[in-house]
Amino acid sequence: MKKAKNNNSTKKTSPNKLPAWDLTDLYDGIKDPQIEKDLDSYARMNKALARKYKGKLSTLESRDFYLSLKDVEKINVLGSKLGVFAYLNMVTQMKNPQAVAFYQNVDEKMTEASKPAIFYTLEINALGDDKFRELLKNKDVQKYKPFLERVRRFKKHELPEEQEAIFLDKSVTSGSAWRRLYDEHSAKLVYTVDGKNYNDAEISKLLQDKDPKVREKAGKELNRVSKENSALFTFIYNMIVKDKAIGDNHRRYKTPVAARNLDNQVDDKALEALVTSVRGQYKNIANRFYKLKAKWLGMKKIQYWDRNAPLPFADDKLYTWEESVQIVLEAYGKFSAKLQTLAKPFFDYEHSWIDVPPRDGKRSGAFAMPLPAKFHPYLMLNFVGKQNNVLTLAHELGHGCHMRLAIKQGELNEDTPMILAEVASVFAEMITFQSLLSKLDDDKAKLCLIASKVNDMINTSLRQIAFHCFETRIHQERQKGELSAEKIENIWQDEMQTSLGEYVIVDKDSRSIWPIVSHFFHSPFYVYAYSFADCLVNSLYQVYKDETVENFADKYLQMLSQTGIKRYDQLLKPFGLDAKSPDFWNKGLNLISSYIDELEKLDKKINKK
User: Fold this and answer.
1) Is residue 311 within 8 Å of residue 299, measured between CB atoms?
2) Distance between CA atoms of 428 and 421, rounded to whole angstroms?
3) Which pLDDT score is estimated for 16?
């Protein structure tokens, strides 16, 4: 590997010595002359593809069709390298005008360069069924069958090439431009508590402070700043939702969620069953849990900002980065030595694949970024040493290991649906949680850990469906006209209160914070994937715990390696699970309910002492 140079994109450690990305596997910073060479190559390759194959796919012999797929694959690999580098370079320094301008410049150049290749998927979808089947008889073409079938799924929603070109041209000044404005503005926001300034990642940490007064100040400040900026956020969101509606209308999608469902290979009825099941469990799960949490916090009801508060009697232990890595790798190793081996390269400090610490200008949250097989995934965290940060590491590392497995199916084939992308991460969290729990003897410590896990599971299963219901209503209401900030806040407050129940207060001090959910802006209707995956993982974990499937770990890793080439229902067959069964979702939700049962028992046991 190359050694990092001193530039604004490749620092190997942060000021507090936590590992930071080394992006020199891609480029030696934004001044690297190879970037312009690659942008030129990217443009030439797209033009060459058009010269060689445009208007000819229907007449190609299978061997030549295979060669065209290889050319498209090479273009995608180079495009991923350029686009991912520009994005990763920006997200850790969003207050740096050079980094932001560099990202925009690369995005615009790649958008323009890719226009000649628009014809390719359109001509694949124009192939007659007989011709398509004939081409697939070739063994080499067969390797690309998942990619080809995925393209064909969207056949009836594609537009003529001239219109597709217009949408591609407009993308840099419509949806993506509004998302960029959202990101840049969010990164510049300043939150002030007791005279000290915080960014969004840092103030979120205060919401997990043991002192209720600190949480209250942070919660109200988060809401105040959101309210103060609501005019801009409301306008941006209105434009993003409208932009999507225009595209959906031209592409003949019947509902705002239809495109996402098609991409996830989830039919509308399956999603409806998930939403109905989760909403039906609001009272049994959320209401019961927050009633307990209010009692533990010494309140009749908790405020919205208290939802993720640590319990007063919880251990204040902070984990070092090294301890966290050891905990997660040990948990992975207990489950599967192969999984642990996949995870270890992420922690090579000389060439870190993870950007760990929060810092000024860095995007909040955490994510994993895939890349073609010749490179490797990158993970972004905002690590401050809390127990939930350990589980976040397990979560994102699960994504990273999954990406390393799935990419072996080929660059074009690896397009895992979001509902399956979250399975690896949520399962990784679960095995890490269970590993931590197995080491505890003290009842209070067990209660605190289980309560923290239930808290996270509610955030993943129930809360994400509440987010989905919020999105659904927003997109439906937007069809009638532009939405006011008050209208959006009313819908937000209603859905949050409904999902959280009577023991959580959602009022004027928390009704304006909806813009902090970046998925609403970046990936409409992504959020239900978290709930889908959490319920699926809960059912999957029950099978693992019951030891009813031999060689579970190997079969699980095999499943992860095939998420881009098989549907979720096919992948679950080796585990005896049927996601189409009405009981499937409730089985997953019942695991959360069983943890609350355990909390109620532990609470009574502790109170008797």
Assistant:
1) no
2) 12
3) 62
Mean pLDDT of all residues in 515-521 = 95
Containing 553, the helix (H) or strand (E) segment is helix 552-561
Burial class of residue 173, CB neighbours in 10 A (0-12, 13-18, 19+): exposed
In the structure encoding, which two tokens stand for residue 30, read together? 């934004």
Which residues face 191 on adjacent strands?
Answer: 198
**Across-strand partners of 368?**
379
Name the strand (E) or helix (H) holding 469: helix 443-478
Tell the burial category of 13 from Cβ atoms under 10 Å away from its Cβ (0-12, 13-18, 19+): middle
Bridge partners (DSSP) listed for residue 196? 193
Please give the structure tokens belonging to residue 160: 């003529």
Dump the DSSP string for 168-187.
HHHHTTTHHHHHHHHHHHHH
What is the distance between the alpha carbons of residues 609 and 600, in angstroms, rounded to a whole number? 15
Give the separation between CA 61 and CA 141, rounded to whole angstroms. Answer: 11
Distance CA 421, CA 588 (A): 17
196 sits in which H/E element: strand 196-198
Cβ-count burial 285-302 (b if 16+ within 10 Å, e if not)? bbbbbbbbbbebbeeeeb
Q: Are 83 and 371 in contact (CB under 8 A)?
A: no
Residue pLDDT, tens place only, 250-262? 999 999 999 999 9
Contact in structure between 547 and 477 (CB atoms under 8 Å): no
DSSP state of 483: P
Amino acid at 565: I
| 51 residue type, one letter | R
Contacts (Cβ under 8 Å, ≥6 apart) of 303? 215, 216, 219, 504, 505, 509, 510
Cα angle: 564, vertex 536, 144; to 5 degrees: 10
* Rg over CA atoms, the chain: 24
Sign of the CA dihedral 148, 526, 470, 179? negative
Q: Average pLDDT of 297-306? A: 96
Three-state DSSP class for 505? strand
pTM: 0.83
